[in-house]
Amino acid sequence: MKVSVITVVRNAVDKIESTVKSVLAQDYDNVEYIVVDGCSTDGTLEILDRYRDRLSAFVSEKDNGIYDALNKGVMMATGEWIGIMNAGDVFASNDVLSKVFGAGQSLDKVGVVYGDAIAVDDEVEQYCRASESISDLEIRPCYRHGASFVRRDTHRKYLFDLAKKPLIGFALDYEQIFRMYRGGVTFKKVPCAVIKYELRGASTVSPFKSTYYNYLITHGMKCGVIMKFVLAWLTLWRGGQVVGKRILARSGR
Length: 253
Fold this sequence. Notes:
By secondary structure, this protein is of the alpha/beta class. It is 31% helix and 24% strand. The strands form 2 sheets. Strands 1, 2, 3, 4, 5, 6, 7, 8 and 9 form a 9-stranded mixed sheet that branches.
């Protein structure tokens, strides 16, 4: 089976090369590597030029953010399976794709394959185990987006919904996963770590905002009266300031 790996990037000169090398180092025989750049100006394009002949597809043009760029990559992909590798992320080992898609793996009727992840902070690694029960999606994201692969036809049916970006911002990936879950797509967990991602330098957001976005996604984009009251109270309590941090690895955008 051909596996398409998509990296979207904009101005990540200090991160992009490690990601590219990780994808190209995979020992799986049938990999299509697609890079979608958002008109980088910091030297990212110069690094990508070194590997241009080893990229299956490359585009550098203006876009409407990371999820718009990801949708472009999904529509360009020709592999049966699609994986997302953000700039700065790397595969957990050189044989991840062989473990997931190699001989002996049964993926009939499976629409999404997901695994564990490894968070790296100042060279200290923390193993992040994904949930065994996909029904945990009813409450929260239960696996890291970059540690999953989606069948191409399924991904094209469930593109990232850019119309919802004003409402849920950075949570469009969870919203897409949740729609697949509610749409009856079959998920399967594999017993291995798929990616390593850096905590250092990652974006931080209010845990209240994250909780609010998750609530909207799991409740049909509607915020109930109680939730509105709780959020209003928390905002007044801390003067609208961020009171905590939730680490979210991003792709240099």
